[in-house]
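Let us practice reading a record.
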Amino acid sequence: MTQKRLCSAKRNDYISAAEDSKSGGFNGRAASIPEFTLFEPEKVWAYEVGLRSEWFDQRLRFNATAYYSKDFQIQLNKSTTDPQTGLPVASTTSIKAEFSATIATHRSSRRLPMDC
Protein backbone atom coordinates (compact mmCIF):
# COMPACT_ATOMS: atom_id res chain seq x y z
CA MET A 1 0.00 0.00 0.00
CA THR A 2 1.36 3.39 -1.00
CA GLN A 3 0.83 6.30 1.31
CA LYS A 4 0.24 9.66 -0.31
CA ARG A 5 0.20 12.89 1.65
CA LEU A 6 -2.73 15.09 0.77
CA CYS A 7 -1.05 18.34 1.65
CA SER A 8 2.64 18.29 0.81
CA ALA A 9 4.22 21.69 0.40
CA LYS A 10 7.24 22.99 -1.44
CA ARG A 11 8.36 26.22 0.23
CA ASN A 12 11.00 28.84 -0.26
CA ASP A 13 11.33 31.48 2.48
CA TYR A 14 13.71 34.38 2.16
CA ILE A 15 14.78 37.60 3.81
CA SER A 16 17.08 40.34 2.58
CA ALA A 17 18.46 43.67 3.75
CA ALA A 18 20.32 46.20 1.63
CA GLU A 19 21.81 49.66 2.08
CA ASP A 20 22.18 52.18 -0.72
CA SER A 21 23.12 55.82 -0.97
CA LYS A 22 23.04 58.82 -3.28
CA SER A 23 25.98 61.17 -2.94
CA GLY A 24 25.69 64.61 -1.39
CA GLY A 25 26.79 67.77 -3.11
CA PHE A 26 26.27 71.50 -3.34
CA ASN A 27 23.80 73.97 -4.80
CA GLY A 28 25.22 74.63 -8.27
CA ARG A 29 22.51 77.20 -9.11
CA ALA A 30 23.39 79.60 -6.31
CA ALA A 31 23.02 83.26 -7.25
CA SER A 32 24.86 84.49 -4.16
CA ILE A 33 27.31 83.23 -1.52
CA PRO A 34 24.61 82.57 1.17
CA GLU A 35 22.67 80.38 -1.30
CA PHE A 36 25.76 78.26 -2.01
CA THR A 37 24.99 75.41 0.44
CA LEU A 38 26.17 71.83 0.83
CA PHE A 39 23.78 68.92 1.31
CA GLU A 40 24.28 65.52 2.91
CA PRO A 41 24.16 62.18 1.08
CA GLU A 42 20.81 60.40 0.93
CA LYS A 43 20.81 56.90 2.41
CA VAL A 44 18.23 54.12 2.36
CA TRP A 45 17.90 50.79 4.13
CA ALA A 46 15.57 48.34 2.36
CA TYR A 47 14.22 45.10 3.85
CA GLU A 48 12.29 42.30 2.14
CA VAL A 49 10.70 39.15 3.58
CA GLY A 50 8.98 36.63 1.35
CA LEU A 51 7.43 33.25 0.92
CA ARG A 52 7.05 31.22 -2.28
CA SER A 53 5.01 28.03 -1.87
CA GLU A 54 3.29 25.31 -3.90
CA TRP A 55 0.73 22.88 -2.46
CA PHE A 56 -1.29 19.82 -3.55
CA ASP A 57 1.02 18.55 -6.29
CA GLN A 58 1.74 22.09 -7.56
CA ARG A 59 -1.96 22.80 -8.13
CA LEU A 60 -2.13 25.58 -5.56
CA ARG A 61 0.41 28.41 -5.40
CA PHE A 62 0.70 31.14 -2.79
CA ASN A 63 3.38 33.83 -2.83
CA ALA A 64 3.69 36.76 -0.45
CA THR A 65 6.29 39.47 0.04
CA ALA A 66 6.55 42.34 2.52
CA TYR A 67 8.74 45.37 1.83
CA TYR A 68 9.99 48.08 4.18
CA SER A 69 12.44 50.88 3.46
CA LYS A 70 13.71 53.75 5.58
CA ASP A 71 15.26 56.77 3.88
CA PHE A 72 17.56 59.28 5.59
CA GLN A 73 18.35 62.83 4.39
CA ILE A 74 16.01 62.61 1.39
CA GLN A 75 17.06 64.92 -1.44
CA LEU A 76 14.19 66.77 -3.11
CA ASN A 77 14.58 68.78 -6.30
CA LYS A 78 12.88 72.17 -6.22
CA SER A 79 12.81 74.90 -8.83
CA THR A 80 14.08 77.59 -6.46
CA THR A 81 17.65 78.71 -5.91
CA ASP A 82 17.99 76.10 -3.13
CA PRO A 83 17.17 72.87 -5.01
CA GLN A 84 18.45 70.23 -2.58
CA THR A 85 16.55 70.28 0.69
CA GLY A 86 14.41 67.55 2.05
CA LEU A 87 12.97 65.51 4.85
CA PRO A 88 15.31 64.06 7.48
CA VAL A 89 13.62 60.60 7.58
CA ALA A 90 10.81 58.84 5.72
CA SER A 91 9.68 55.22 5.43
CA THR A 92 7.69 53.08 3.01
CA THR A 93 5.85 49.83 3.71
CA SER A 94 4.10 47.56 1.19
CA ILE A 95 2.80 44.01 0.87
CA LYS A 96 2.30 41.92 -2.25
CA ALA A 97 0.40 38.62 -2.34
CA GLU A 98 -0.37 36.25 -5.20
CA PHE A 99 -2.61 33.21 -5.28
CA SER A 100 -3.30 30.79 -8.14
CA ALA A 101 -4.99 27.42 -8.41
CA THR A 102 -5.26 24.79 -11.12
CA ILE A 103 -8.75 23.32 -11.13
CA ALA A 104 -8.30 20.61 -13.79
CA THR A 105 -5.15 18.79 -14.81
CA HIS A 106 -6.16 17.99 -18.38
CA ARG A 107 -8.66 19.07 -21.01
CA SER A 108 -11.28 16.89 -22.55
CA SER A 109 -10.83 16.19 -26.25
CA ARG A 110 -14.58 15.89 -26.76
CA ARG A 111 -15.97 18.75 -28.81
CA LEU A 112 -19.19 20.43 -27.93
CA PRO A 113 -21.76 21.02 -30.72
CA MET A 114 -22.02 24.58 -31.93
CA ASP A 115 -25.59 25.70 -32.55
CA CYS A 116 -26.00 29.11 -34.15
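A brief commentary: Residues 1-24+37-69+86-101 form one domain.
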